[in-house]
Amino acid sequence: MMKKNQTSATRRAVSAREGGTAWHARVAAGEPILDVDGLTISATATGSAVVTGVGFDLKASEILALVGESGSGKTTVGLSILGHIRRGLEHSGGTVTLHASHSEEPADMMTLDEPVRRTLRGTRVSYIPQDPALSLNPGIRVGKQIREVLDIHEYGTSAAEREERVRSVLREVGLPDDDAYQRRWPHQLSGGQQQRIGIAMAFAMYPDVIVLDEPTTGLDVTTQEQVLETIREMTVNNRVAGLYITHDLAVVSEIADRVAVMLRGELVEVGETAQVLEEPQHDYTRRLLAAVPDLAGKNQIGRLAKMDARTSEFLTSEIDVVAGAGSGAADPASGTASTAVREVALAVRDLSLAYGDSKVLRGIDLEFNAGECTLLLGQSGSGKTTLARSISGILSSYTGAVEYRGEELAKSTRDRTLEQRKQIQYIFQSPFSSLNPRRTLGQSLMVPLEMSGELSGQEQRERVKDALDAVQLGRQFYDRRPGDLSGGERQRAAIARALVNMPSVLVCDEITSALDVSVQASIISLLHTLQAERGLAMLFVTHNIALARHIASRVAVLNRGVIVDDGPVDAVLDHPQHAYTRELLANVPTL
Fold first, then answer.
1. Quick one: which of 587, 542, 551, 583 has its CA closest to 569?
2. How far apart are CA 179 and CA 183, in angstroms?
3. Which end of the chain is more exposed for a tag (fewer CB within 10 A), N or C?
4. What is the pLDDT of residues 188-224, one digit of tens each?
């Protein structure tokens, strides 16, 4: 049977190459290529359902967006289309039917023998993961990686045909097809180029169905726009049925024909994209839409009710993020400050950094005021994180100066005074960069206090518990481990670790980029509260321009190591001075 399916897959690929869309001949126009009916998946240990009675269909040249919070079951459903159930889960009901193509009969991906299922993966059903690193082998050149897909599934009748297919699919995704490019290693490509290689691998065998699992989450807006356009063109031109898994409703409006919304393992709303986004029927969908950051700042996500990402249930309490009188906090919507007096907490003077002949930062000048948040924007590779780490002393090879309250800091954090290290704290994009998975939160948060040695053991424990309270986790999380927490809870714990030393400057490096919209809203709300209560100066590094009016009072735009726009939020967003800033704004996905 396996050989028969391999032969059929090869025949279908040849037909696709010679006859365009002939492999869909047995699927009538408008009829679904894939049907999911009553799909139920349960935890093996407890028998409790994590996905319950899910049903939808996928049609050629159409993209269905599957939307929901972390833990809602989106990826579990997406993987089931490939006939894959993650360890600890089991199929307990329903079907995933792949309809006829050429001589193949309709097949239920849930009940096929594994050898047959493996043959269908890559030929009729393909997958693009969120992180290109998960689909690319760092030790194999990119051209060879695409060629391997064709070799495994016996594409065509000769090596020359496979070589030509490698070149043609590279051209289809907008990449060079020459030998020199094919010989590149994955690390020699940008994030967007890596993702395009992943797309090329997924489309190489002319699949009928493709599952895209958050493929643009980590990309800046310009690269994201290019990748979305590539996905859309490839889906339509190849008459592929696409399932696009995402938590970004702005992206949904750009790419999807229909939307299905998941909550706690169930579909709560399905419909045409315009209908769901403009006239949502379910309260959960309306709340998701309210949590989407918008460039105009109208959604006010910082004031939304919190949502627990693990249970996807909204709490009823609302967080008051309005700055108190005299706090020095800024109103991010207007870009104005609540007090006239501004103290410069941190300043960057003529900062430059190079790796060999490659100049990463060039003459950066910035000031960060107490009680204000500055958004640092730029594409991947623009130097944002390099600047943030130079300010924090993580990188020390820069020239120029970083000043804290008028005093120049040593370049390396090791050479700075204890007080200076305490006052400037860095929050990493991944919470696991600051939280040891083998330690409890209490133990991890205690480390900065132990290093300073200024408090007794009891005082340290109380300070840690106070920090957990400040980030709205609560003292009961003291003995929990990172693996027991949702993504939003882990990020709150990472913020708490930065707060235990009572800093006056926070450097936040893409800390919401991997979070779904409501969790992102709760983190931004938390930062507003902390800023108002403590008068913090914040540098918020991100590629998500839509967050600007929701979190910041100032915006600095970094392009190829140079600040090309800098000023109050409204001034930069409404009257950008540089063409690069205008390009970024033009590429922001919106509802």
1. 551
2. 6
3. N
4. 887 778 888 999 999 999 999 999 988 887 677 777 8
Instruction: Give the long-range contacts of residues 457-466, CB within 8 A, separation 24 or more.
Output: 463/500, 464/496, 464/500
- One DSSP character per residue, 463-495 reads HHHHHHHHTTS-GGGTT--GGGS-HHHHHHHHH
**Measured distance CA(445)–CA(192) in Å, rounded:** 36
What DSSP state is assigned to residue 431? Answer: G
Which segment of 232-246, 324-338, 527-541 scores lowest on mean pLDDT? 324-338
Region of 86 on the Ramachandran plot (φ > 0 left; ψ -120 to 50 alpha; else beta): beta
Contact 334, 326 (CB under 8 A): no
DSSP 38-65: EEEEEETTT--EEEEEEEEEEETT-EEE
In terms of residues, how long is the chain? 591
> Which segments of 238-300 does DSSP mark as H helices, in order?
249-255, 273-278, 283-290
DSSP 123: T
* Global pTM value: 0.72
User: What digits encode the pLDDT tens for the residues 376-419?
Assistant: 998 877 889 899 999 999 999 999 999 999 999 999 999 999 99
514/327 Cα distance (integer angstroms): 31
Q: Which are the contacts of 361, defined by CB distance < 8 A and separation ≥ 6? A: 351, 352, 353, 354, 383, 386, 387, 390, 398, 561
In the chain, the amino acid numbered 552 is: A
Does residue 253 contact residue 590 with C-beta atoms inside 8 Å? yes
Cα–Cα dist 450/234, whole Å: 55
String of DSSP letters for 309-349? TTTTEE-S-----PPPTTS--EETTTTEESSS---EEEEEE
Residue written as token pair 């309260």:
283
Query: For residue 99, what are its two tokens?
Result: 């309809």
Residue in 468, 466, 453 with CA at minimum distance from that of residue 422: 453
pLDDT higher than 50, residue 327: no
In whole angstroms, what separates CA 522 from the centre of its chain? Answer: 16
Between CA 159 and CA 199 the distance in angstroms is 22
pLDDT at 379: 82
Give pLDDT, residue 433: 77
Res 439: pLDDT: 92
Query: CA 510, CA 540: separation in Å to the nearest integer?
Result: 7
CA distance 268 to 69: 13
What's the CA gap between 406 and 391, in Å, rounded?
A: 14
Return the bridge partners of 407, or none.
Answer: 404
Q: Which residues contact 249 (CB under 8 A, 6 or more apart)?
A: 67, 277, 288, 289, 292, 517, 591
508: which 2 tokens?
């936040």
- Amino acid 187: pLDDT: 84
CA gap 544, 377 in Å, rounded: 7
Strands 241-246 and 209-213: parallel
Distance CA 169, CA 482 (A): 41
Sign for the CA dihedral angle at 72, 247, 203, 133 comes to negative
